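ingest -> validate -> predict -> emit
validate: passed (alphabet ok, no gaps, 217 aa)
predict: started
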Amino acid sequence: MTLLTPVPTRAGRTVWLRGLAAAVLMAGVVCQVVQRTDPTPPLLYFTVDSAGLAAAVQVWRLVRGPGSGVWGDRIRGAAVVGVVLSSLIYFTVIAPSNPSGTWFGAHDDAWARTATVLLHAVAPVGVVAEFLASPYALAASQREAALLTCWPAAYLAAVGILAWSGEATMPYLFLRPSQFGAAAVVTAVVVLYGITLALAVALLAARSHTTKFTTKA
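emit:
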């Protein structure tokens, strides 16, 4: 008698992707919280906040199922944009300016190094894979892409207000007027928004293409 191994269904594969993405995101956040190298409060970092939001979305979808409605899908998409944006900024701006010449600071402990790898290298792949593999109710339009940029904009507004009021220090040097001047920071914000919008457009376009390919198959 021949035993046949069941082939995982598409729904089963997306559940595994969802669980894996949630685990990586949460592990990265925990590592950043327990590390003792960087004294900056973890929640001031866009990377940590985006990972926390994305992890909450994935856990919610694991518990309640993938059908999260229009705004649920928008929040999910915004979280994915945030995770990918934080990785892009790290590898193009922050890591190259690191005096050590590597991804890590010279004095980073093992927790900090693990958080860097998980949040900037592994998590973006996981959340994008889950996003492309799971159902998404929204169209690939400029309006929807613009709505996905609301999360990075909200973060910048919140941390900017805290920094301006003296309650916190902006954790990113290139966004500190005291370092580069107000004009340079405004330019950086405009460029960042353009990159964020481009990421959102590309993400929705890729999702639309994946849907068409799956439908034809």
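The chain is about 70% helix and 0% strand.
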